[in-house]
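Because discrete structure vocabularies remain unfamiliar, we reproduce here a specimen of the format, pairing a chain with its fold in token form:
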Amino acid sequence: MEKKPYQLPTITVSFEPQGKMEVMPRAKTVLQLMHRLNIRPCTCLFIRQGEDGNKELLTPDRNIMTNDHIIIRTVVSSG
């Protein structure tokens, strides 16, 4: 029996409004993802998009699952 090589669990991250999408190794929590991407708290919204199209707002303590699609939406102030 041939062994398959181990693959790191990944997530898909979409950056809005930049329109950029990236597949990266999974962080365990939103807070870990924030640190990895050098994002300060309160500067972005983290949203999980489900396979059924539903969206869920995530707080820093929430877990991220393998194959999740996370939308990171920059909070913009319009004065």
Remarks:
- The radius of gyration is 14 Å.
